[in-house]
From TrEMBL, chain A:
Residues 3-83 form the GST N-terminal domain. InterPro entries: Glutathione-S-Trfase_C-like, Glutathione-S-Trfase_C_sf, Glutathione_S-Trfase, Glutathione_S-Trfase_N, GST_alpha, GST_C, GST_superfamily, Thioredoxin-like_sf. The keyword Cell inner membrane does not apply. PROSITE patterns: GST_CTER, GST_NTER. CDD domains: GST_C_Alpha. It comes from the Eukaryota. Residues 85-209 form the GST C-terminal domain. The gene is Gsta3_0. This is glutathione transferase.
From TrEMBL, chain B:
Residues 3-83 form the GST N-terminal domain. Keywords: Transferase. This is glutathione transferase. Its EC number is 2.5.1.18. The keyword Ribosomal protein does not apply. The keyword Transferase applies. Residues 85-208 form the GST C-terminal domain. GO terms for biological process: glutathione metabolic process; xenobiotic metabolic process. Coiled coil: none annotated. GO terms for molecular function: glutathione transferase activity. PROSITE patterns: GST_CTER, GST_NTER. It comes from Anseranas semipalmata. Belongs to the GST superfamily. Alpha family.
Amino acid sequence: MSGKPKLYYFDGRGKMESVRWLLAAAGVEFEEEFLETREQYEKLLQGGALLFQQVPMVEMDGMKMVQTRAILSYIAAKYNLYGKDLKERALIDMYVGGTDDLMGFILMFPFLSAEDKEKQRAFIVQKATSRYFPAYEKVLKDHGQDFLVGNSFSWADVHLLEAILMVEEKKSDVLSGFPQLQAFKGKISSMPTIKKFLEPGSQRKPVPDDKYVETVRRVLRMYYDIKAN
Amino acid sequence: MSGKPKLHYVNARGRMEPIRWLLAAAGVEFEESFLETKDDLKKLQTDGSLLFQQVPMVEIDGMKMVQTRAVLNYVAGKYNLYGKDLKERALIDMYVEGIIDLNELILSNIFQPADKKEEHFATVVDKATKRYFPVYEKVLKDHGQDFLVGNKLSRADVQLLETILMAEECKPDMLAKFPLLQSFKARISNIPNIKKFLQPGSQRKPPIQEKDIPRLMQIF
């Protein structure tokens, strides 16, 4: 039984945002159910919908998929965004691993104290500009193509654009040493499905705020402190 | 140009161990180059071998692969340990990601400060026995088959066995409430390639000891 994929998560970015990006890039319409109360979460738990008691969860193609990486890999493969063979997949997996690590530093950001936020911001920018962006800049420079892998639009391109925009939200001129990435950003952003996702009114979520943090803590009963890297 | 895969890491389990397991399970011989000093790491970083300046790195099939998941995905795909279609891959991926999460928890135990160790250990046991192991016990119970997915050995089985053994190193009776996982453990351990890997003299690494930590940390 198909129908549109249905995403179960908070009304915010978190770990689900990459899934929204990828579905949108693939031109796949999806529905969302936002967790707002503890009761909703417990209902999902009791119904056995969450394999490891965690969200994200995505109902698609008769499955209740959990684990963000599993979901993204499935979507990428289904919609031909995962390269044409094992070796292209290997490259995509490597590149996505890097952007995943980079976005992981940003994931915890809203949960940090004000002081730790400043530390983490500096950490994110430092890692982005000294470790991650140089790697992708070089990939693009070396082959001179528009897309990261196989001269063809893939999951790696979507994930990198997502990461670039997220880091720019922490420091708007962070791409200033990276001309290839600037051009990449412009090109990928103007692809029709991505352009649509970047417009107001799309299902893209805004930068997480205190309300989001409060909701997550309340629903998950996650009241412990989170430390910066 | 093939030849054996070559693994670049420290002489310890860490993030390379699942790769050793998977190659061994697939019957693939591999070589290892151990980082012993900070300079060894710097050398790899400056000669452009490490995409994100990090290890693990595995030289395989003309590539210098980094990112543990990418390497595991490639090895699994190449040696038919990744299911027969997209849906089996999806199940394998879900199971494997859960195993990776539990693995991370166990791995991080040894790095806890003395005053947090007991609490963290309790968390490991709690999560292992209430969140993760029940899932795999149920999977095996529901289909009654020998392997987690598709009635065939896959990376999910290999990675689950690895994590079960690591969990038991923490607490020997970790599987007390999980009879199917106990027989799973025996069964998968008996598969020839895996049995060989579990014997002394294989490339399997021992658990990290407290005394090794300073030496390893100064490399990174």
